[in-house]
Amino acid sequence: MNPKQIFYEKQAASILKHLERRQMKGYYCPTRQEAVATAMSLTAANTTVCFGGSMSLLESGVMDALKARTDLTLIDRSHAKTPEEVRQVYLSAFDADTYFMSTNAITSDGQLVNIDGNGNRVAALIYGPGQVVMIVGMNKVVPTVDDAIRRVRNTATPPNCIRLGLETPCAATGSCADCLTENCICSQIVITRRSRTADRIKVILVGEELGY
Question: pTM for this one?
């Protein structure tokens, strides 16, 4: 085990304790393969699953694993052809048994920080689905909420805007301009400091770099 792996393991052990205190269930998986196995074990057969846009889900292999299962009803907005169909997918997420996503950042004391454009992803995190399962690379750990917001604005959002082909100041310069442009994807800032329903939110920390 190399020094970074040892560091991630020790850091995760502390975060898991804080998550428990905040009524969230935490897991640590050294590899993405183990994360996929854990995520699938949390997803019961004959249930409905929805998901938010997430590079972490793609890079970890969780998305492929979900799509490969024939015992799930997968609500996939990529199949929607009109804005109204997209809206219906967003609304149907609230009634899903499981909602998969990542988090833009997680603090050392177990707080989740997410910045969203439409708000559908953070809305499902806050309320609705029976459980929320997060796949979170250890590269997203930061000391404080303020650090988390800075991370999202300057580390996560610019490449996301580039990926989505959005013309925003951060896509052009690589750093946040606190913009209010039409294409801005930083409309909502949500800090999850506690789950009202115990263990509804499940955070799978992965000892690798995933997502932005």
Answer: 0.94
Q: What is the pLDDT of residues 141-180, one digit of tens each?
A: 999 999 999 999 999 999 999 999 999 999 999 999 999 9
What sign does the dihedral 175-102-129-161 (CA atoms) show? positive
Q: Are 35 and 60 in contact (CB under 8 A)?
A: yes
Q: Name every residue whose Cβ is closer than 8 Å to that of residue 28 and which is 6 or more positions away in sequence.
A: 9, 12, 13, 16, 204, 205, 207
> What is the distance between the alpha carbons of residues 10 and 14, in angstroms, rounded to a whole number?
7
